[in-house]
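Students often ask why we bother encoding 3D structure as a string. The short answer is that it lets us treat folding as translation between two languages. Here is a chain of 320 residues written in the first language.
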Amino acid sequence: MSPARHSRYANRSTTRGSQGISSRSLHTFSLWPATLFARLSPAHKQRVIRALRGKGHVVGFMGDGINDAPALRAADIGISVDTATDIAKDSADLILLEKDLMVLDGGVVEGRKVFANILKYIRMGASSNFGNMFSVLGASAFLPFIPMAPIQVLTNNLLYDFSQVPIPTDAVDDEQVARPRPWNIDEIKRFILFIGPISSIFDYTTFFVMLWVFNCWDPARAPVFQTGWFVESLMTQTLIIHVIRTNKIPFLQSRASWPLTATTFSVMAFGMWLPLSPLASSLGLAQLPRMYWPILMLTLLGYMSLTQITKAWLLRKKWI
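And here it is in the second language, the structure alphabet:
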């Protein structure tokens, strides 16, 4: 706004005061990015806030007097101080105990970090489960045995969930806290529909390897097939959080917190050890052929690369 125009609106609102604000002028004023209102009554403060909220703005209001109570209630976030009147403090959502507005800034940043980490877990869990259902349904249609035993499914989920426990401690990229990120279910749907099936692609490549390379069509070799998918599923699910957690290139441009990194690789190592451990027979796991492991490494590399490429494409389209 030019200085002349800013002065004209400021003078009008000051000289006319609260009695001169009509519904039409209030609607017009709410469109300007910088508008000054003066000599407002409690009712008019409330009307200004409702007009701004009606335009889609998230409105914060700070006040400490009795006359500020209606506006504090009308705002999305009402802010007061500990020396304010009782009714102002009762109407406020936040009460500052220090004479420092940077407390609010810190709270906003921490809130955005919490939201970003919650979104990571939702994207991770929803897309993973969506892909796993495709894999289970497809494998059950042509296999002469179940693709994974119930005890193996439970163990897989337990280890996977354990690896995700440190997500609340994870670092958040600066651009993810630079501006508000409202809850958008459509973005989550698109993420699930595009990212989820990628895991199924590599599940089916694992099925092909186990059936045709390692000759697991014979029901007697079902434990080998189930072990192969158990290990591949656990490794891909656990490792892919590092792609999902950031809009950048994982490990190179953005690194997870050390607790999340530690649990990721600890669970992956544990999953590789299980088929060789004394627990293998109890879980129905069998020792895997040596050739399985280099194929698994190629599977992990391909899965992470394709997921990163798809994620980058979705970001360019501004779909997530």
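Translate back mentally: Residues 3-99 form a domain with the Rossmann fold fold (CATH 3.40.50.1000). Keep this in mind for the problem set.
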